[in-house]
Amino acid sequence: MKKLLILVFLLMAATAWSATINVSTVSQLHNAVSSGGGNTIVIADGTYRLNDTLYVNASNVTIRSASGIRENVVIQGAGMSSGASIGNIFRVAGNNFSLSDVTLERCGWHTIQIVGVDNPVIRNCVLRDAYEQIVKVSDEDISDNGLVEGCLFEYTAGIGPQYYIGGVDAHRARNWVVRNNVFSNIISPNTTVAEFAVHFWGSSSENLVEKNLIINCDRGIGFGLDGRGNTGGIIRNNMIYHANNKGSYADASIVLTDSPNSQIYNNTVYMEHGFQWAIEYRFSSTRNILITNNLLNKRIEQRDGASGTVTNNKTNASSGLFVNVSSGDLHLVDSIGGGNSISGLVDDFDSDIRSGVIDMGADQFSGGVVPPPPPPSLNKPDNFHRVE
């Protein structure tokens, strides 16, 4: 009986300590974010021009739009430039942070910076026009079990503001999942190649990158960096397309660098620019890897003593295999088979179950075509209101 009373008390206390806070102005949003942990912050439709970073220092903070329509709540920094007065839109230093159904844009550093905390969730957001990497996981401490799902990452001008940009860029991230996102136009305008659409490095480990559509980004997915490696992890069921006339520094689409025990399988890559290879694995520390069942139009490159199992990949895919290459729709027009059964391979880019004959690449042909998720309309309705 005593234990039951204690449990009831704890449940009542938890309920009392949490609240749903509805906001419709910038000052209300700042106050709600700083009000403590356990709260759900619900944001009314509008455009919110911040006067400072939103600092999430408490744990168990949930933030979402009231409508559930991510284009209808736009949270803006003070501009996309090195001199912008607002660096990050969100700086998250509390565990169990959740953000969904909003748009973040126009900042001097990152739309979201995760600072060594566990279980962050970023879902169904538009994240765009950051002067540096759009989402950054910093190296203050290990960050476990993050999820980035169903988001659009983009540069609306069709090219980035500088080379030091990327989509999800993570240090010391462990057991993260980056799934079902669209990455578009992460392109360097000058000097050198941009960072990856998705990059786990700096002592990251055992992360999963799957079912993403990456269009016209200088580099697609990377595990590790020279001297700042990654361990393990899986890259699977992604579609990556790059047109010939998009940027001057296009590079390999999938790269392992100082990344032992990693797996790359059932991805589809079609590159129309002049770079010579689609997948690269590099350095002797990159060992015990698996690269298989990938459908590519360019070769796989081994560099500087890397080793592992590289087998059963098609590297001369023609455009005729796909529904619409120029739009990045790399679904198959017919079954091509050729894929091997792999532990962990149960479905495809569209979450269609793989059964019977396994197709190489990200799409398992099922007799019908499911188009990739298109970027949402960026046109706001006429009655869209601005919140200062």
Shape estimate: globular
Q: Percent range for helical residues? A: under 10%
Cα distance, first to last residue?
Answer: 53 Å
The counted number of beta strands is 39
Walkthrough of the structure:
The protein is mostly beta strands and 388 residues long. It is built from 2 helices and 39 strands. The strands form 6 sheets. Strands 1-2-5-8-11-15-19-23-27-30-33-36 form a 12-stranded parallel β-sheet, covered by helices on one side. Strands 34-31-28-24-20-16-12-9-6-3-39 form an 11-stranded parallel β-sheet, with no helix packed on it. A 10-stranded parallel β-sheet has the order 4-7-10-13-17-21-25-29-32-35. It folds into 2 domains: 20-132, no CATH class; 133-329. The relative contact order is 0.09. The longest helix has 16 residues, at 2-17.
Blueprint (SSEs and pairs):
Blueprint: H1 2-17, E1 20-23, H2 26-33, E2 40-43, E3 46-49, E4 54-56, E5 62-65, E6 73-76, E7 90-92, E8 98-100, E9 103-107, E10 112-114, E11 121-123, E12 126-130, E13 135-137, E14 143-144, E15 147-149, E16 152-154, E17 168-171, E18 173-174, E19 177-179, E20 182-184, E21 196-201, E22 204-205, E23 208-210, E24 213-215, E25 219-223, E26 230-231, E27 234-236, E28 239-242, E29 254-257, E30 263-265, E31 268-271, E32 277-282, E33 289-292, E34 295-296, E35 299-303, E36 308-311, E37 322-324, E38 329-332, E39 386-387
